[in-house]
Specification:
homodimer; 405 residues; Rossmann fold; 2 domains; 7-stranded mixed beta sheet; 4-stranded parallel beta sheet; elongated
Chain lengths: 405, 405
């Protein structure tokens, strides 16, 4: 019996460890592999032979791992480049040294490309190693899945903070603008999800070229109509020429040594400078949105766990390689009605790699006015439910990261 | 039977509505007053005769009100100045018009001073109106209480985000610094509470004059020792001459029209400019920390509710006026052992007004190294427990603010 390896890559999420827990647990339920090794810091640590034996994690540790945010194995931004035979050979040497036949890689579209490239290279060179991808990303920008583990929990905390800060903002009478900034450099899914709360007056996405005059006119209109304006902006919002909002004003002011605030701070200042209101508040969700275990979506953490299990279970078939598991709606009608009804499927890794799924143009209302009902129906089933967390000392219990042991 | 009035003032908290709910519920259990009116937007709205009848809120609405963050009646920054007889008379006229004998004011030390001033003025002028204070503040800077409703929930979410973002930070190998900024202009309680997680390498408080060279030396030491440095800074951190960190660099760079980032951004840039690491991440908790209902401390929400009840119940005594209710430990030993054991007491409003309770110097470790065990023991009992929240559509249910109806 051979062993398997599982590693994590790219930006952490609130549920990426649930997928890891799923692989480990599935092997306890059906020991397809003798040992389940965790690779520390993604491919980077694996190349350096840094492994951690996860085979016999206790049931309790597996439960706590599911509610431990961020990447418990550590992560990396290192991309195995196609044609880098030295790295490929080194990886196979490490795998051989530990009798590892199968590698599971949990990551975004770059990692899915790595799965594709490694599989291809192994096939071409007659090397009997298998590579299987498990997707994750808070950006939700992967194809061909309906959605991606990590996104729903990020959307849930983003919605919760949107609503809480809107109520905070709404308690005041003084004229000020509120701007909430979310992650999302290329795709505006997370920013768009905040509109689910019904609190967002204006939404600025990377999918729509920013038009300063048109935007300021809408802000003015909101203040004229209702005396308040709650704005959500994606960090990747940009002008038609590609200049990011976050960088624009900084450069204009000849203040080159630092990015002093992102898109949110820029919008706030723009509105103040235009004389619409004398002040504003900026809330940058930053990393709090992607790694907040205290606001996991039950749908998300369950899916992430089951995707890990599904990948492991499918790998019992020795022909299963160069594949990625994903989620798609079983019934579009159910999902649109807010009923969760999803199907797990597997597809070729190349179908998951190197594409960016933007927030659909047909779901974006004109004039920064937010999202359509269809988009609301898309978000609704994803953020439902809260796992029953184990608390210790007043906080959700977490495992000590394996890369810190 | 006369009526009572309850209003909210100052910055919102996650549990200020629980105190409001406590007043309303206590009157349902023992109708000391015929009607319970909510004053919209604090004293500002009351002077404008903007009241909302809360007497008959349903049991469910009271439960939801307890988990509704921010100030459901709306808030104000308006301070009734001593000697402003016009405002005082106007207030009494509004109270008379609605047969209101007693006013409960939920707020910080400015509001407690208002309670004191109004009581004194009524007494001097032979006006049979009573004024009672119910404290709240996320800053925890009130005397003579042990702690103040609103702080514990802010500390709990601050700790949860500290731990989650630390784990996110710890997943990486690349050299970067992490800086988390909390509210707290004069007192560093909230920033200090983040140390409860055990994740904070360096803590920068308003209570200690900032010394750039000494601080950077500590940062360098952390990177030398462990390759990482997680820093928490209070927004009010300042140099010995009183200059805020948040304003300092901005002014130096001749960039006067805006505060471009707070203390956190300044520290990050200082560390990068010193060449210690090439990059950093800033997480500004901003308003998310004070109004996050999804992370209420059960101790906090229970105390806030019971303080509201206690104020109402004590007011059945017609001699009870110019008073504020508060919380102090019944047993210092229990609290130090992490066992919650608190006592509700009432004291003269003047004792609660116009003082700032700083984070104790004897609880601060030298060299930005954090807090003592005694401070940890202080925080522990406060952040315990999680209320069972009612969720609707994937989010904690909230009431529509009364000022928006």
């Amino acid at each position: 019996m051979s062993n398997c390896l599982v590693a994590q890559s790219g930006g952490p999420t609130a549920v990426i460890n649930a997928s890891l827990a799923g692989v480990v647990r599935a092997n306890q339920l059906n020991p397809v592999y003798d040992r389940v090794f965790g690779g520390l810091h993604g491919i980077e640590g694996v190349l350096d032979d840094k492994l951690y034996d996860l085979t016999d994690l206790s049931g309790r540790d597996i439960e706590i791992l599911k509610q431990t945010p961020s990447s418990a194995l550590g992560t990396c931004r290192y991309k195995l480049k196609r044609g880098n035979d030295a790295d490929y050979k080194r990886l196979v040497d490490v795998m051989d040294a530990h009798d590892i036949e199968t590698m599971f890689y949990i990551g975004g579209n770059d990692s899915m490309d790595t799965v594709d490239a490694l599989s291809e290279w192994a096939h071409e060179n007659g090397i009997a190693k298998r590579f299987i991808g498990i997707p994750k990303t808070v950006d939700n920008d992967l194809v061909p899945v309906d959605h991606c583990p990590g996104f729903a929990s990020a959307a849930k905390i983003a919605c919760e903070i949107t609503h809480a800060t809107y109520l905070d903002y709404a308690a005041y009478t003084r004229p000020e603008v509120f701007v909430l900034e979310t992650m999302g450099r290329d795709a505006g899914w997370l920013a768009a999800s905040c509109c689910f709360t019904g609190n967002v007056d204006l939404l600025v996405l990377p999918e729509v070229d920013f038009d300063k005059e048109a935007f300021l006119a809408e802000v003015q209109k909101k203040f004229d109509e209702k005396g308040e304006c709650y704005i959500v902006v994606s960090e990747g919002a940009h002008y038609a020429d590609g200049t990011y909002l976050s960088a624009g004003d900084t450069a204009n002011d000849g203040f080159a040594h630092a990015v002093l605030g992102g898109a949110g701070a820029t919008l706030k200042q723009m509105i103040v400078d235009a004389g619409i209101v004398p002040r504003g508040v900026v809330q940058d969700l930053s990393r709090a949105a992607r790694s907040s275990n205290f606001a996991q979506s039950l749908v998300d953490v369950t899916e992430a766990y089951e995707l890990g299990m599904s990948a492991h279970m499918r790998s019992a078939d020795p022909a299963f390689t160069s594949a990625v598991v994903g989620i798609r709606p079983r019934s579009a009608e159910d999902m649109a009605a807010g009923v969760y009804n999803a199907e797990f499927f597997a597809g070729p890794a190349k179908d998951f790699a190197n594409y960016v799924k933007h927030f659909p143009a047909e779901w974006i209302l004109p004039n920064y006015a937010g999202i359509t009902q269809e988009a609301m129906d898309y978000f609704r089933p994803l953020i439902q439910g809260e796992p029953k967390l184990v608390y210790e000392n007043g906080m959700p219990a977490t495992l000590v990261p394996f890369n810190k042991r």
